[in-house]
Amino acid sequence: MSGTSSTNSNTPPNDEGRVEDEKIIDGKAFAAGLRGRVKSRVDTFRTRTGCAPGLAVVLVGENPASEVYVRNKARQTREAGMESFEHRLPDTTSEKDLLALVDRLNRDPSVDGILVQLPLPDQIRADAVIATIDPAKDVDGFHTTNAGLLAIGGDGLVPCTPLGCAMLLEDRLGDLSGKHALVLGRSNIVGKPMAQLLLQKNCTVTIAHSRTRDLAGQCKQAEILVAATGRPRMVPGEWIRPGATVIDVGINRIVDESGKNRLVGDVDFESARSVAAGITPVPGGVGPMTIACLLHNTLLAACRRRGVEIPEGSAD
Ligand code: GUN
After folding, report:
1. 117 in catalytic set
2. Does the annotation count 140 as an active-site position?
3. Going from the N-terminus, what domains does the chain have, and what CATH number goes with each?
4. Mean pLDDT over all residues of the chain?
């Protein structure tokens, strides 16, 4: 457990004018460390096999947010010493053509990981695409085989965002056994796999959602609160149990009270930080962990597919 710097709220601003705060769970710093560890293991992989792990990212159409994500994924993949294969298709692409590309990538031995950026245009069923990806190359962890393996505690590939949240929680709290965790949100990409991961780590898990009665009361009981609703600042500080650890998965673009564009989470950060013992900021919390975990999953998939063992924490 590396923990975070132990400063208190009276700590003066540092050189960059930021106030160090022991409550802040710094996902940006943790992600940088994780990328460094993946890179050293990739170096070992290359020395042993004579080739680099390869990640194929497929982008259909011109969604500006997806463009940014895909560019960042490709850059960080290369920086980690892996091969990045980018496939950009027009938004008129048919489902049949996309499935044919996925099939080609499944059979390409230089590709260890496949990620098809979501959302997809309306004529393409995301479920059909995910079902076509070879589960051994499904670095998003979205295939039903990987979802099933996570549910029974098997060795699959775990979705990147929940995996990153679990890493931040264990870094901050150590053993999570017996803790009462509330996951707010039930999506297949975050809420459900997050709940499965926390259960695997011996938490007592509640999943809450838009139809849950007394959301405030449910939140108030949680020692760990993971918010993944996609609703800006929906969780106020009064809902949070004093001393809880709060992981905010939301990345919502809003126009604030002074008319400025801002990114905010699903938790009202300012009121929550005075109640919680630890909280992820937005931006700089969970966001950077998602791509770092994608690199981690790509290396894991490459090691499994090629029968190479490079334990985490060892790079020789
Ligand atoms: N779109 C937004 N986030 C993700 C993600 O984690 N994986 C994929 N495939 N698409 C996304």
Report:
1. yes
2. yes
3. 50-154 (3.40.50.10860), 158-288 (3.40.50.720)
4. 93
